[in-house]
Amino acid sequence: MTFYRGRAIQLWVLAILLLWPHRAPALELGLSSDTIVRQLERDDRDGRSRSLLPAYEFLRFDYGNLRTPGLSLHAYGWGRVNLQDNYANNTTAGELLYAYLEYLDPNRDWQLRLGRQYVFEGVTRESLDGIYVKTDIVPSVTLSAYAGFPVNLNDKGGMSGDSMVGARIVHSLPGRYDVGLSYKRTANNGSVDEQLLGTDVSLLLPWNVSVFGHSTLNLLTAEWGEHSYEVRIPISSFEIRPFFQKYRYADFLSPKPGSANPFRVLSRFGDRVMVVGSEAFWYPAENIEFGGRYKHYEYDSRYGKADMYTALATVRRKIFSEVGAEFGRVEGDIPENRYFLGRAYVYWDIAPFFVTGDVMYVDYDEDIYRKGSAFFASAGVGGRFLEKALNVKLALDYSNDPYFNKDYRGILSASYSFAK
Length: 420
Known about the structure:
mainly beta; 22-stranded antiparallel beta barrel; 4% helix; 69% strand; globular
């Protein structure tokens, strides 16, 4: 289990909270629990049968002024025990995902968080043990900053020399634009792992045309790691969304062992990827949607080029019920990127119960590991009870593809939410 990893900062949070309640009126309590039991049966490429029966518990706790400014405590963690396992010997695992004390000024002019928390600020999408503050310098300028220890480096040679600091400043004109500039620096054992500078923009142009985008500059290599931009153009009952994305893996993904990104290995290949295309949607009625999507991929070295063409349709009933279908074609330079794709799905609400279904079929132009197709199907049924505080769902998944033969997965989940 990796709940506290020897850190004292969560204990500070609890101590402060225990001293505070007599000053903070109308304290509230929120508790939610998600329990998931999965059953996996898989035949691997060697013909061996593999089985796994893990049970997961996700628990979230909120205490304080949850709906109004003031002081509050938020915590969320998970644990797992394998009731049956012939994959590996690791039978238990768990982690405290966040546990922080938050104070929001009554005038909402500034915000403070202390503890383990997620930070999504410009170039930063990380978990850290530390402090975060956000304030309005003037009505049109907002500044946020954070400092602490990156959680993903806890097991990489200890805490000595580990740190993460960053900031973001945003200038905005409500209803017109938001323009941000952000910075992030991560050190592991005294060595700088990452140093990034990013820009992001959100514009509302005449005729309700919107522009969204961001870019990331790697200051260690002096190269751009990422550009991603999208335009949304509404025309009567239509909307067109052209987009452009470009990544240089060596500068976008840190190759250092302390990096939290699971795809950091891609940085070692020195590949560059460009994705350009557009989506188009037609809304002939409030509950009906038709769409089309085109994407062109270009890889410098590993995968060559590929084009994806997709058509989709969705019909909705009331708020929650939805039926959809999708059909597409991928045409690429390598066999794995030449195939037809078909998918259909449903989510039907028959309160207090609901049913779900999802089917997908892929037909490859050439055999992949001696298989010319891939199939996936999922079916589920569930219900909401105790005035919708308790949600229970039972689902069964099946897949058969070039990489795994006969993969079965069963999921029983129960979610409970309490507030007082």
